[in-house]
């Protein structure tokens, strides 16, 4: 086995294209140099289409959670009330950040595996007209559910002045996002998921409505103070030292994304979702998300006790050097999650499915070898 051929099929960090790896090896540059400033400003500009916005996109050195925290601390003050749509682990993270800053978090919780529907949100907001912000997760990575952000935004815009703040960490760059057209106020994402980079960058865009709130807000933040990032970006720079090498990598990622084009990228991810789901169905493994809300970047599978998910994952790593993810929180040890985003294509999906089948066989679980692969192949053939 080639030890450098570690196959990552977890929902982040994701594999890095060799071109991007190489770009990150460029010699270090002064971060206040004219050359870097020009690259930085252009790179930030090129992120806009993935958010679907005319607004500036801010690049923060930090993991995705730093941008989640930015979305909270810059818009709300202690004592403010917010609605948090919790469909899994990451929705709950938004609630915890709010509470840490003294914001009263009203959770609209759905069972893990379900999406927050516009009807649920409509009823919830009628009961809580005082909330100043609504927080949602686009792709809930812990369950593989994609929440209907456009429809949720419509509900909010109809009946409330609340800001709509969306965590799109595990899907932006692979899914449609029309922040301006949908009426979303803040979208945040990170570098190590569909953006095919190492962890270390977070991206955030804010609407004009959000900015009018942010400008009035007496934020507690220092490093995460968005106003400082806005002031610096006007001068093509950042308030603190940026992760220069990651910016080199990001510029290369944007080349790759532009070469394929977002519509084709979205279709590729839909195809990988459909292949994975067809395979799991053929293997009689329950899918956590229903078709209408199934994420295109990660698929959550629940063996419902038919086999030991952790033993299967261990066999997969031991024999095939492939990593997939387990469950989080109360689903730890019970489910498995396959990441299929970023530098991943349909043939890679066949590989992970074939390896899962063999691992199931090796742990003594009943499995018809090839059944999942065949189902996925049929989906792929129908597309090409
Ligand atoms: C990965 C992820 C995050 C960010 O996690 P970090 O570890 O801080 O990068 C946030 N939200 C979702 C939905 C995620 O998948």
Automatic annotation (TrEMBL):
The keyword Glycosyltransferase does not apply. Its cofactor is pyridoxal 5'-phosphate. Pfam families: Aminotran_5. It comes from the Bacteria. Substrate binds at residue 337. GO terms for molecular function: alanine-glyoxylate transaminase activity; L-serine-pyruvate transaminase activity. Residues 14-329 form the Aminotransferase class V domain. SUPFAM superfamilies: PLP-dependent transferases (SSF53383). The keyword Transferase applies. The modification N6-(pyridoxal phosphate)lysine is found at residue 193. GO terms for biological process: glycine biosynthetic process, by transamination of glyoxylate. Signal peptide: none annotated. Keywords: Aminotransferase, Pyridoxal phosphate, Transferase. PANTHER family: ALANINE--GLYOXYLATE AMINOTRANSFERASE, AMINOTRANSFERASE CLASS V. Belongs to the class-V pyridoxal-phosphate-dependent aminotransferase family. This is Aspartate aminotransferase. It comes from Brevibacillus centrosporus.
């Amino acid at each position: 086995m080639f030890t450098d051929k570690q196959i990552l099929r977890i929902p982040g960090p994701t594999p890095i294209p060799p071109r991007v790896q190489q770009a990150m090896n460029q010699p270090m540059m002064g971060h206040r140099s004219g050359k870097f400033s020009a690259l930085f400003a252009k790179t930030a500009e090129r992120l806009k289409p993935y958010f679907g916005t005319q607004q500036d996109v801010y690049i923060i050195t930090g993991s995705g959670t730093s941008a989640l925290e930015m979305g909270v601390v810059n818009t709300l003050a202690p004592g403010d009330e917010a609605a948090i749509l919790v469909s899994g682990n990451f929705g709950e993270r938004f609630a915890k950040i709010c509470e840490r800053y003294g914001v009263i978090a009203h959770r609209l919780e759905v069972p893990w595996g379900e999406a927050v529907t516009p009807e649920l949100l409509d009823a919830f907001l009628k009961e809580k007209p005082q909330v100043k912000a609504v927080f949602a997760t686009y792709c809930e990575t812990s369950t593989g559910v994609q929440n209907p952000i456009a429809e949720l935004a419509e509900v909010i815009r109809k009946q409330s002045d609340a800001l709509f703040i969306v965590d799109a960490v595990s899907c932006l760059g692979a899914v449609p996002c029309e922040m301006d057209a949908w009426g979303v106020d803040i979208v945040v994402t990170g570098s190590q998921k569909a953006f095919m980079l190492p962890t270390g960058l977070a991206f955030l865009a804010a609407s004009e409505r959000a900015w009018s709130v942010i400008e009035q807000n007496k934020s507690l933040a220092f490093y995460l103070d968005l106003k400082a990032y806005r002031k610096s970006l006007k001068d093509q720079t950042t308030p603190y030292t940026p992760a220069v090498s990651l910016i080199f990598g990001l510029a290369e990622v944007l080349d790759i994304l532009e070469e394929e084009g977002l519509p084709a990228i979205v279709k590729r991810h839909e195809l990988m979702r459909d292949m994975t789901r067809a395979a799991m169905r053929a293997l009689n493994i329950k899918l956590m998300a229903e078709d209408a809300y199934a994420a295109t970047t990660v698929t959550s599978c629940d063996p419902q006790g038919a086999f030991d998910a952790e033993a299967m994952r261990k066999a997969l790593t031991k024999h095939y050097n492939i990593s997939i993810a387990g469950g989080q929180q109360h689903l730890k040890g019970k489910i498995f999650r396959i990441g299929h985003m970023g530098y991943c294509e349909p043939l890679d999906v066949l590989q992970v499915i074939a390896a899962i089948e063999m691992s199931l066989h090796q742990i003594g679980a009943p499995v018809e070898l090839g059944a999942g692969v065949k189902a996925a192949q049929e989906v792929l053939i129908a597309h090409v």
